[in-house]
Fold this protein.
Amino acid sequence: MRNVIFWAINAALGPLIVIPVTVWATAQGLGWRPWDGWTGFALDLVVLDLWIYAWHRANHRIPFLWRFHGVHHLDQFLDTTTAGRFHAGEVVLSALVRTVPIILFGMPLESVLTFEALVLAAALFHHSNLRLPAGFERALSWLVVTPSIHWVHHHAVRRDTDSNYATVLSVWDHVFRSRSQTRRTPEMEIGTEGAGEETLPRLLLRPFRPAR
């Protein structure tokens, strides 16, 4: 039920905040766009994916951001509903921070909306409890983030939680040496090391409670 409520809150934030901020950003281009056409469209997606990798990594490294992002990681049962379990504060901050590459590279709205659709599809896929044939998943994991890769990111061991940050393309964790060598196992504990699941009110207030 917690995850469903987070999905509902974030669905409401889309038309109220996220989309207006995105539309505003696409209208603020600096008049400098280093690429165009279909090649430019593809490069927009790659740049946004790299940006979200860096943002995700920052959410694990900066204590203030982790207070929001930790709500996502406290889920102890990983499935597609976890893909929408993000604190509203994180969703708003993410939308605001994403305006930087949009404005800098003069990205059109079409590129950003396409990327958002890719992110949603990728999140539903790699948060799912699917078990793909080992050979197929191994080959697929060289291109995109698969369930086995992301399950390790949700392992309740901090060194694994602080790894495997990629969202769509899996290459970034190889490039920036953040890929965990841990392999997904059936008994892998999901959640946050040293912390348990919390009630919905506590999750909503988590970023604003005094640090312990």
